[in-house]
Amino acid sequence: MGYWSIPLEMITFLIFTDSCIYWIHRGLHHRLVYSTLHKPHHAYKVTTPFASHAFHPVDGFSQSFPYHLYPILFPMHKYLYLFFFVFVNFWTVSIHDGCFRVPDLLKPFINGSAHHTDHHLYYNYNYGQFFTFWDRLGGSFRDPSSYANNGPLDQILDETKMEEFTRKRLDFAEESLSLIQNPVKDLKSARKR
């Protein structure tokens, strides 16, 4: 085919692999295989780059299989195959890095880190690899909570929640100190409560 076919190969590769991985990933969440094959990856509720490659060998093989199947079924330039081998690894790390930088125009279409973080938090949403198309079609799409300022980091940094948390810690510390200073009297009053 020649170099002119490279743009077509790129598009069809992304569409083919995104479709296959959506269904494989969704299948890995089936109750009969989830706890054995895919749950180790979900030990990371809040994703990190390390989580991107922390998986059961069968899970890793099955989700990487479409990348190697494509050039068997369709012609693909060898350098493009090598490019995608590297790109897919970078993409996999990027959707686990907690950095939600996707241009506003592309947020409805790109399955970025925000989508995948919610996948780790809520399990049955956002299975796609690159795009949100299959999640929308399969009824598993969920708008990322971080886009509504309600993601895990937003909840941690929420000032009112932090103030409440700090107040509770101070109250606990004061009660603990009081028990240490006057254990018998405070123990009797604590029992009355």
TrEMBL record:
Is Transmembrane helix a UniProt keyword of this protein?
yes
GO molecular-function terms, A-Z: iron ion binding; oxidoreductase activity
Q: Indicate yes or no for the key word Oxidoreductase.
A: no
Q: Which UniProt keywords apply?
A: Membrane, Transmembrane, Transmembrane helix
GO biological process assignments = lipid biosynthetic process
Superkingdom assignment: Eukaryota
Q: Where are the transmembrane segments?
A: 79-96
Localisation per UniProt entry:
Membrane
- Residue ranges constituting the Fatty acid hydroxylase domain according to the UniProt record: 11-139
- Might you report a single GO cellular component term? membrane
Q: What name does UniProt use for this protein?
A: Lathosterol oxidase
Origin species: Holothuria leucospilota (Black long sea cucumber)
Q: What is the lineage of its organism?
A: Eukaryota, Metazoa, Echinodermata, Eleutherozoa, Echinozoa
